[in-house]
Design goal:
The complex is a heterodimer of chains A (366) and B (176).
Chain A (H helix, E strand, L loop, with lengths): L1 E7 H11 L2 E6 L6 H10 L6 E4 L3 H12 L4 E6 L1 H17 L3 E9 L5 E5 L6 H4 L8 E3 L4 H18 L2 E7 H5 L1 E7 L54 H16 L2 H4 L2 E4 L5 E6 L2 H11 L5 E6 L1 E3 L14 E6 L6 H5 L6 E5 L8 H10 L2
Parallel strand pairs in A: 2-3, 2-4, 4-5, 5-8, 7-8, 11-12, 11-14, 14-15
Antiparallel strand pairs in A: 1-9, 5-6, 7-13, 10-12
Chain B lengths: L2 E8 L4 H15 L3 E6 L9 E9 L13 E4 L2 H8 L7 E5 L10 E5 L1 H6 L8 H13 L4 H11 L5 H17 L1
């Protein structure tokens, strides 16, 4: 059974979190993400969960990490300035392999920028924003339904890979209202528990250690310092650091095919749009208005880890066109994986590319 | 067929709510697709407010309103900011009590605010009168769908008043 609603993207995100069993939200309201905190504040206490309005975003992500280590599914939601403040602790979550979900309803930056306007300007920040080497997962919905579905998925990926997982949405999808179908229940996959006799940061072939949250009866030491498989600091041995950080990166990067989530239209095409988030909808409109097998579309629902193999699914591609609501961020990733020309179609200021704008670019590059 | 409907008035009239109610009627009760968006700026109560809805029989891909074919305008400032450039083939419903200007396109004058204040006794339902008039003047959603969407969206205890306002709007729209 399910129910159908006409709902805002941010509300659907909160519904997805609740359906996925999220029972902790620590956050500091910020436009254009505030409706997520509002919905969680209303709904979590009734669901037996905890909502804390924290003093700032540094504390918000810290509280989320703490809650996750009690075994709860935990999340926060923010936008540009708050996301920047969270960066250090996001690295801590990556280093401590803390499963948690961070929603970024992107707005125009830098700084306080355009609080009420859409952007995709934090796509490299979510990949590289904290110091040191690490790898995480970033999901990019393009509809209200996907705000629900992909929030559920974010929790599953966070748990499975024990990484902070980002739902990188934006003001357009966060604030639009559309029909959304909400199932009564969703399947949930929690982290694999730490096996008896295993060390808490020892991993097998998949490079992901079993999880023993506080209160599970196992003694676990958790630190942001470089640590050994027991979790104890070992900060000077080059090999210990090399082994740990390479594993943190590899557990995500070596599972790229498994994590990948994308749509392909017209794989025989010569001119191929590559999109994520709402610009994909402009491309879909252009392709409906101008049916033409020589125009293809690769739409990424997950941008990080980057599925470079998806680009090879267009063997006849002569040129890739990439509209983004920034000055050209993920386009760099496309450029380094293909030999063909890759054309960035940047747009900043807060509005989505119009179909006419993309048709003009299309005509200039065929 | 794709319709793009734009509502504008001043903050506090229920402009955004009107757009949400219309989208809800189409998406939940008329078996169509709808996307509702709004200008989400730092508008203060009293400033120009704007909400939009795209309604289509097919899934809606590009979600923004490019060129509205239907306008509902409830303030002079709203007209100047969001209605003055309406295309010639558009249709505009204006609250005749609050908008002095008239557009170059087909225009229906709906005395929504004076009806709400007078016959209905509550100025706050003027937006519901406008929605009623919109539905009968354009047929963009069915009467049954809009009735259900209004009932979903108004506070408990005000259902009767809002339905009365909607029906008054139906009559004004039919006559227009």
């Amino acid at each position: 059974m399910s129910r159908t609603e006409f709902m805002q993207g941010n509300a659907a995100c909160a519904e997805g979190a609740l359906a996925a069993g999220c029972r902790f939200f620590g956050g500091y309201p910020i436009t254009p993400s505030t409706e997520i905190a509002e919905t969680m504040a209303r709904r979590l206490p009734k669901a037996g969960g905890v909502f804390i309005s924290m003093e700032d975003e540094i504390a918000s992500i810290a509280a989320v990490i703490g809650a996750a280590w009690t075994g709860a599914r935990a999340m926060t939601a923010t936008s540009g300035p708050g996301f920047s403040l969270m960066m250090e602790n996001i690295g801590y979550a990556a280093m401590t392999e803390t499963p948690c979900v961070i929603v970024n309803i992107q707005r125009g930056g830098p700084s306080t920028g355009q609080p009420t306007r859409a952007a995709q300007g934090d796509m490299l920040q979510c990949r590289f924003g904290s110091h040191g080497d690490y790898s995480t997962i970033a999901i990019t919905p393009n509809s209200v339904q996907e705000m629900f579905d992909l929030t559920v998925k974010a929790f599953d990926l966070a748990d499975r890979f024990r990484v902070p997982t980002f739902l990188m949405s934006d003001e357009i999808v966060g604030h639009m209202r559309e029909r959304v179908t909400i199932p009564d229940a969703v399947d949930i996959q929690r982290p694999r528990p730490l096996a008896e006799g295993s060390l808490p940061f020892a991993a097998g072939e998949d490079k992901i250690p079993g999880f023993a949250p506080f209160g599970s009866g196992r003694a676990v030491h958790v630190t942001g310092l470089t640590h050994d498989e027991r979790g104890y600091p070992d900060t000077t041995d080059p090999e210990a650091h090399d082994k740990l950080v390479r594993r943190l990166v590899a557990k995500v990067e070596s599972a790229r095919r498994d994590i990948a989530d994308y749509e392909i239209v017209n794989p025989g095409a010569e001119t191929v749009f590559v999109t994520y988030g709402p610009p994909s909808r402009t491309v879909e409109q252009v392709m409906r208005d101008h049916p033409d097998d020589s125009i293809g579309h690769l739409r990424l629902r997950i941008v990080w880890p980057f599925p470079e193999f998806a680009l090879k699914e267009f063997p006849n591609a002569k040129v890739f066109l990439m509209p983004e609501l920034n000055m050209g961020q993920v386009v760099r990733e496309v450029q380094r994986h293909v030999d063909q020309p890759v054309v960035s179609i940047p747009k900043i200021g807060g509005e989505l590319h119009t179909p006419a704008e993309l048709v003009r670019v299309l005509e200039a590059h065929r | 067929m794709r319709h793009e409907i734009r509502f504008s008035g001043y903050g506090g009239q229920g402009i955004i709510l009107s757009a949400v109610i219309l989208g809800r009627a189409a998406a939940l009760y008329d078996n169509k697709y709808a996307v509702q968006t709004q200008v989400y700026g730092p508008e203060a109560r009293g400033g120009a407010s704007m909400g939009q809805v795209v309604i289509d029989d097919e899934p809606i891909l590009y979600p923004e309103v490019a060129r509205p074919d239907i306008y509902v305008i409830m303030s002079q400032q709203g007209f100047e900011k969001y209605g003055a450039r309406a295309g010639e083939d558009a249709v505009m419903l204006i609250d005749a009590d609050l908008v002095r200007s008239r557009p170059g396109c087909r225009c229906y004058e709906i005395p929504a605010t004076s009806e709400a204040k007078g016959a209905l006794g509550r100025e706050i339902v003027a937006n519901i009168v406008m929605i009623g008039a919109l539905v009968t003047a354009t047929g963009v959603v069915s009467r049954e769908a809009i009735e259900r969407a209004v009932l979903d969206s108004v506070p408990k205890g005000t259902e009767e008043l809002n339905l009365k306002a909607l029906k008054r709007g139906f009559e004004l729209g039919e006559r227009a």
